[in-house]
Amino acid sequence: MSRVRDAMVSDPFALDASASAQEAGRRLADPGVRAVLVRNGDALLGVVTRKTLVREVVAAGRDPAATRLGEIAEPPIFTLDADADLETAFRELEERDLERVPVTENGRLAGILSRAVVQRRLAEDEPPVEETV
């Protein structure tokens, strides 16, 4: 049985809680980056998105260079445990309409799981269908 740890990207990019909102903004300027994971040591503290930056920094009139991510990071909507069954994880991603989700292990950030990667992984694990002639 495949586990989340078998399909996740280990050690995903994350900024420390002491990093500035400006640093997160630089990462989020890349169209391929939708969220920045924020960690406090090895623990996942939260997530910062473009929407978070607009609401918590720009609209609030805060200085992006002086605002720490630990002050504005939002708790993740959903996380998966590294030992969770991959098929169950896929169903959760589908039901919640999530493309990527942080993976934790014993309270620490262990990786990130992408729905597209899980789909491919599950398809590879399926035995080929034999055709009868």
Describe this structure in words.
- This protein has 133 residues and is α/β, with parallel strands linked by helices.
- It contains five helices and seven strands, in the order ββαββααβαββα.
- The protein has a four-stranded mixed β-sheet with strand order 1-7-6-5. A three-stranded mixed β-sheet has the order 2-3-4.
- Strand 6 and strand 7 (108-114) form a beta hairpin.
- Helix 4 crosses helix 5 (115-125).
- The model has no long low-confidence stretch (mean pLDDT 90).
List the helices and strands and how they pair.
Elements: E1 9-10, E2 14-16, H1 21-28, E3 35-40, E4 43-49, H2 50-58, H3 69-72, E5 80-81, H4 86-96, E6 100-105, E7 108-114, H5 115-125
Parallel strand pairs: 2-3, 5-6
Antiparallel strand pairs: 1-7, 3-4, 6-7
What would you say about this model in short?
The protein contains 5 helices and 7 strands; from the N terminus they run ββαββααβαββα. It has helices at residues 21-28, 50-58, 69-72, 86-96, 115-125; strands at 9-10, 14-16, 35-40, 43-49, 80-81, 100-105, 108-114.
